[in-house]
Design a protein that fits this description.
It is a single chain. With about 625 residues, the chain is an alpha+beta fold. The chain is about 50% helix and about 25% strand. Helix 5 crosses helix 7, helix 12 packs across helix 15 and helix 13 packs antiparallel against helix 14. The radius of gyration is 33 Å and the shape is elongated. About 0% of the residues have low confidence.
């Protein structure tokens, strides 16, 4: 008896509707666009900026397709890549350092599809292109930061050993000068310094430790060349790890992050939607510094007015522009943070960030709060902002640091590794927690190159590749229709649905399609064709054995299903292994292959049988099959 459960028909219908719905966004081409995002807290995205941008573009002869204001950026849609480049070149020097102007590809998917979570399938850098960054690590700043850390450690051990000193300072040549007070034990100080540096730096590179030279009551510390080289190398590797974490937090599929030369990193983000946000998050070096407050607002104002600032203090300003005196000594900084989460203060209900320090940072904070309950602790937010200036028609990139006091509250009690930072807005708390969770950069980084790249194999090669796949698909369909007649038509419909399901699933889950992905798709279609061939040939065998047509259909599907399942299972195991142990293009191939195999099993065993049943079940006196 040729029967097929009605619930399976309902399932096929649901799958067909959902597949068509979630594959539909791929029919909408993206607009080349320019995305403008604030780079500083003073910058605003509003109607005034929109009017100004439209005026600048009109004066440059650029006609936008549309201009949209989002909650945090201004998007200018353009007709082609030439207009996009001209618009970017026009806006960057005019908007200056307060705004980030990034090239982008803006989606044209209707809002009703977007609200359903239906988005276009991500394409790899070899098909769609994407954003290409080259960033340079400031190794000199990393070395300076490490040497200042060593100097701070020397101050601590000398105080703990009760050895008097008048100054411990980093010199321009990255040596450390120590001046002891009269009568201090120089040999004891030298021993303490050597132990401190050995503990801080670990085993010396190549067996060459730092040189600690004594001359009277002066001690000079010079790092070995091996140690200096290790610091520079470690800075690049640590930044590479941090950037990798930040890319993962953006959610980019199959990113490329490679080291180039001694101090550069190459970042490629294929199919990325929000390039300005990526640039802000990747390039940001925002962190916190905890410093003791050494004077109240009146003393700070008097110091600014007279220009007589205490040697152990610096002037900082809060959001209201009020000056504050903070210690030059940093208690805890960003690289000692383990975790940060946006929270709500249980007492005031205001936004805050819950911070967890490592053991070293927690100990320093505990030691400070034990001795300074009732004193004030300043929290400085430091952000390094990339800037671009046009000099003689060429871009000159640099960076400026913005430092502001976000809190200068009184220490109410003793705390160590875990505490809360208040004085932030909700957006500031979320942004700061996200950046701090991603990790602290060992050294500042600057964008030295930024561009949107096209297909690496060229548009012509991509077009030919797609054409070849389409022709192969059409030729396969024509062969099936002539060779298997009615069952060939059923097979063709199943293959079309199989292709639709693969595109829909990859679009729904944000998988990236690349050239290796096309290879995986072609292979999965081949496996689907193979499954249908097994079914059709099995039905032919049953007919040749004298079995009635309807019984031959039932038997053919039942006996072929086990073989199809076994053969596809081996393909899935291979795909899972490629995904687990491969990287980049191999993973793209594996994802497409596994999705295609699952879809091909469903369409070959379930969908084709449903169609055959729908065609032949109503016929009471069926004597032959068109196969």
């Amino acid at each position: 008896m040729l029967e097929f459960p009605r619930w399976k028909y309902a399932l096929i219908l649901v799958v067909l509707v959902l597949a068509a719905l979630y594959a539909l966004p791929n029919a909408y081409q993206k607009n080349p666009s320019v995305q403008i995002t604030p780079s500083t807290s003073e910058a605003r995205i509003d109607e005034a900026l929109k009017t100004r941008v439209e005026g600048l573009l009109t004066a440059a002869g650029v006609t936008p397709v549309g201009t949209e204001i989002d909650e945090n950026h201004l998007l200018v849609r353009l007709s082609n890549s030439d207009a996009q480049t001209l618009a970017s070149d026009t806006l960057r020097p005019e908007l200056g350092e307060n705004y980030s102007v990034a090239l982008n590809l803006a989606s044209t998917v209707p809002d009703w599809l977007d609200n359903l979570g239906a988005r276009p399938m991500s394409l790899g850098l070899d098909l769609q292109g994407g954003v290409h960054f080259v960033m340079q690590v400031d190794q000199a700043a990393a070395l300076q930061k490490r040497v200042e850390g060593y100097a701070d450690g020397i101050r601590t051990v000398l105080r703990d050993a009760r050895i008097g000193y008048s100054s411990v300072e980093r010199r321009p040549d990255n040596s450390i000068g120590v001046v002891l007070v009269e009568g201090a034990d120089v040999n004891a100080a030298r021993t303490q310094i050597i132990d401190s540096l050995t503990s801080a730096a670990g085993q010396a590179v190549g067996g060459s430790g730092p040189q600690v030279l004594a001359d009277g009551n002066r001690i000079t510390v010079r790092l070995s060349s091996g140690e200096i080289g290790r610091i520079a190398t470690d800075a690049v590797e640590q930044n590479r790890t941090v950037i990798s974490n930040r890319i993962n937090s953006i959610g980019v599929s199959e990113p490329v992050l490679q080291r180039q030369g001694e101090d550069r990193l190459v970042i490629q983000l294929p199919g990325l939607q929000d390039t300005a946000e990526a640039k802000r998050l990747i390039g940001a070096t925002a962190t916190l510094e905890f410093r003791a407050v050494t004077g109240d607002e009146n003393q700070a104002a008097a110091a600014v007015a007279s220009g007589n600032i205490p040697a152990d203090s610096r002037i900082y300003y809060n959001d209201a522009g009020t000056p504050l005196l903070l210690s030059r000594r940093i208690l805890v900084q960003g690289d000692q943070l383990i975790n940060a989460n946006p929270q709500t203060d249980s007492q005031t209900g205001s936004p805050s960030v819950g911070i967890t320090l490592n053991s070293a940072g927690g100990k320093r904070m505990l030691d400070h709060t034990l001795q300074n309950v009732g004193q004030r602790l300043g929290i400085v937010y430091v952000e390094r902002i990339p800037t671009v200036r046009i000099v003689d028609g060429e871009e000159v990139r640099s960076a400026r640091s913005v430092e502001r006091v976000i809190s200068s509250s009184t220490i109410q009690g003793v705390f160590g590794r875990e505490f809360q930072t208040t004085g932030l807005s909700r957006d500031e708390a979320n942004d700061l927690a996200q950046q701090l969770r991603a990790g602290a950069l060992a050294a500042p980084m600057d964008f030295v190159e930024e561009r949107v790249v096209g297909p690496s194999l060229g548009a012509e090669n991509v077009e030919r590749g797609i054409t070849a796949v389409l022709y192969a698909f059409v030729f396969t369909l024509i062969f099936f229709m002539f060779y298997y007649r009615m069952f060939g038509i059923v097979t063709c419909l199943a293959l079309i649905l199989n292709l639709l399901i693969v595109v829909a699933v990859m679009s729904l889950f944000g998988a990236t399609m690349s050239l290796p992905g096309f290879a995986g798709l072609a292979l999965s279609i081949g496996l689907s064709v193979d499954a249908n061939v097994l079914i059709n040939e099995r039905i032919r065998e049953e007919l040749r054995a004298g079995m009635p047509p309807k019984a031959a259909i039932v038997t053919g599907y039942e006996k072929a299903s086990d073989t199809i399942f076994d053969s596809n299972l081996t393909g899935m195991i291979a795909g899972i292994a490629l995904y687990a142990f491969g990287t980049g293009p191999l993973q793209g191939f594996a994802v497409t292959l596994v999705i295609g195999i699952v879809a091909s099993m469903f369409t070959a065993i379930v969908v084709s049988r449903a169609l055959v049943t729908l065609i032949y079940a109503p016929r009471k006196k069926l004597k032959s099959l068109a196969i």
